[in-house]
Design goal:
This protein has 393 residues and is of the alpha/beta class. It is 32% helix and 20% strand. The strands form 3 sheets. A 6-stranded mixed sheet has the order 11-10-12-15-13-14. Strands 3-4-5-6-7 form a 5-stranded antiparallel sheet. Strands 1-2-9-8 form a 4-stranded antiparallel sheet. α4 links the parallel β10 and β11. The longest helix is centred in the C-terminal third of the chain and has 24 residues.
């Protein structure tokens, strides 16, 4: 039996309206409970767990609040800025606080840290980069940190070359801010990146500290406006300034997360966390930018690893894997692998080509975070001396 044309059109319209109704219901904004404490907006952790579909789990420590399901997890510590997300350490802008028989997180941290860490595939504005800029820290008379084996400037140059080789083998266009032992001003490195708005920027460094026991990986991206950098507790006047880097701050955080999970997925180094800073190359660079610290040259164990060419090869592959995961996210909206995914896979696997991308997929409808706009800067920051905080490495 053949249905009349007008009847088929009615059925089709009804189907379209039904689909539209379902989608509209699925993307409705959540009614967040927002409370103001100490001049800042907060939301309850219980609601955060519900929003991300993570049930609360019991812990032996009464000062921790944890949510977990499968490989996805968040563990907060009361009155602390450290938070474990999907098994790696992250740093919040403000401590979670206990008030009125509940534990609360700053609204800024929910939108700038928790959301990009748990759902990078939903972060807007992640565009497919046409090239990757690799920046070898220091150079020329600026030797950087010193170990018994070599200067930092030589290790960073060796690393950008190794990462470049991995990425070019995968079909990625790579440019280096320096490819020899020369000194380049920090603002010139940022200008080099800003002349290439279709790129992402990855600066490679190695760490040092007066305390020889200090060791491990850490990675930095730009501090949000209105928040203190990780190494500071109090807001300063300069924290109210919107920097060029703030134009891509959430995208930079996703890039940092992608690289950091790959690094720890193939290394046993101590996890020092994804941190925030206003280093010059992060502050002045408009495109997504991160600064990677690959261990401490002042620590005997880290320094011995870094001096090993085999270790640097594996490390370069892990950084390249993290960058490629970010490129795939920009292309397909597929979330980058977690540290647990890399450890299940074993050896770092670098695809030989990205010239034939997989078919782009659209993320499923989700509850909107639009009801949590960016928080206004907190009032009464501390005054700051003329010398800027967070001097660039």
């Amino acid at each position: 039996m053949r249905w009349p044309c007008w009847y088929r059109q009615v059925l089709w319209c009804a189907l379209v309206w039904a689909v539209f109704f379902v989608l509209a219901q699925s993307v409705r904004a959540v009614e967040w409970e927002v409370r103001r404490f100490e001049g800042r907006d907060y939301v309850p952790l219980t609601q955060v767990g519900e929003f991300y579909g993570l049930p609360r789990v019991s812990t032996q420590n009464p000062n921790t609040v944890a949510f977990a399901e499968s490989d996805r997890s968040i563990t907060f510590t009361k009155n602390n800025r450290e938070v474990m997300i999907n098994r790696l350490r992250h740093w919040l802008s403000f401590p979670v606080i206990e008030r009125d028989s509940n534990v609360w997180i700053a609204r800024l941290d929910l939108s700038k840290t928790i959301e990009p860490a748990l759902r990078p595939q939903f972060v807007p504005g992640i565009k497919k980069p046409m090239r990757v800029i690799l920046d070898a820290g220091h150079g020329g008379p600026d030797k950087g940190a010193i170990s018994v084996y070599q200067y930092e400037k030589n290790f960073t140059l060796d690393m950008v070359r190794r990462v470049r080789n991995e990425l070019t083998s995968a079909g990625v266009l790579v440019e280096l801010t320096r490819n020899s032992d020369v000194f380049i001003e920090l603002q010139d490195r940022a200008a080099f990146a800003n002349d290439r708005p279709d790129a992402i920027f990855v600066s490679l460094h190695f760490n040092a500290a007066a305390n020889r026991a200090a060791q491990g990986f850490e990675i930095f991206c730009i501090t949000p406006r209105g928040a203190p950098s990780t190494e500071y507790e109090e807001l300063l006047v300069r924290d109210m300034v919107k920097e060029h880097g703030n134009e891509s701050e959430v995208q930079s955080y996703v890039l940092a997360k992608s690289i950091y999970h790959a690094m720890h997925g193939h290394s046993s180094m101590m996890d020092r966390g994804i941190k925030r800073s206003r280093f010059a190359v992060l502050r002045l660079t408009k495109i997504p930018a991160v600064l990677v610290e690959g261990g401490f040259l002042s620590n005997p164990v880290d320094a011995r690893r870094i001096a090993s060419p085999d270790w640097r090869t594996r490390y370069a592959k892990s950084i390249a894997a993290g960058i490629l995961a970010y490129l795939r996210l920009a292309e397909t909206r597929k979330a980058p692998p977690l540290v647990s995914d890399y450890r299940r896979q074993g050896e770092v696997s670098i695809p030989r080509s990205l010239t034939s991308p997989s078919k782009s997929s659209t993320p499923p409808p989700s509850v909107s975070l639009r009801s949590l706009p960016e928080e206004s800067p907190a009032p009464n920051p501390q005054t700051t001396p003329e010398t800027p905080n967070n001097p660039a490495p």
